[in-house]
Amino acid sequence: MLRKSEFTMTLWGLSLALFIAVAGMPGDAMAAPVALIIDISGAADNSVEPFTEVEAGTQIDLGKDGRLEFLDYNSCKNVIISGGRLAFTDKRYSLRGGKVMKEARGRCPKVMALDKNARVGGVRLRSSANSLRLNDKPSFAFTGHQVTRIRILSKGNEVLSVPLQEPQFQWPSRAEGLAHGSYVLEIQGKNGSPLKQVPFQVTKQGGKSPLTIVRLK
Question: How far is CA 216 from CA 29, 33, 45, in A?
C-alpha cells in the first residue's frame, strides 16, 4: 500500500504528465472551430467580427436588436438569427430569447488550414479528401490574418487579380470560369506582401462551388 506522501507524489506525477500531453496537442485537436460568422450588426456583444470562426463554448449576446448570420459546420446550414443569446457546442447551436429568421442547408464547406510553410493541413468537412480540388468558379473566406488581395496564377501567368475589402471572395456570376488544370492561389496581406501560395486543381465545371475557408496561421 502506498503511503500518503507516495500517493501524493504519484498523483502529482500523473497530473503533470496529463498536462504535458494536453498542452502538446495541436490547437485544432483541443478546440476545433464549429461555425463561421458571416455578418453581425446591432449586437450587445461587440467582441465578434464578421469572417471569424468560433469554437465550442462560445456565447454571443445579441441583445434585443442584434442580427447575426453564420455558417454552422455541423449541419452545413446558413443561419440568420435576430436577438437573444446564441451558444455553440461541439454538436449544435442553441438560441435563448431570440428568433431564427432563416435556416437553409447548403453545401458543406472545404477547410484549408495553412501552417507557416503554406502546407495544406485541412480537408473537406465530412470528407476524407486530401487534396484541394475546386470547381471552375471557386469562392473563398479567409480567417486568422488580414488579406488585401488574391491572385490566381496558371503556369506563372496571372489569370485573376482582385483587391479585397472584406476577407472573402466570390467568383463573379457572369465571369467565365477557370479551365480544367493546375493553378496557384496567391494570398496577399498588407502592402501587397505575399502571405501564402497554395496550389489547387480545377476538376469540375459548372454547378455552385462550395465555400473554401482558408485558415491563415
Answer: 17, 14, 25
Quick check: 128 pLDDT over 90?
no
The answer to whether the CB of 77 falls within 8 A of the CB of 194 is no
**How far apart are alpha carbons 114 and 164 in whole angstroms?**
20
109-145 core/surface letters (b: 16 or more CB in 10 A; e: else):
bbbbbbeeeeebebbbeeeeeeebebbbbbbbbbbeb
Structural contact between residues 212 and 140, judged by C-beta atoms closer than 8 angstroms: yes
Q: Which CATH class is domain 110-216?
A: mainly beta
Determine the residue type at 96. Answer: R
Residue extents of the structural domains in the chain: 30-105, 110-216
- Per-residue confidence (pLDDT) for residue 118, from 0 to 100: 44
* Stated pTM of the model: 0.74
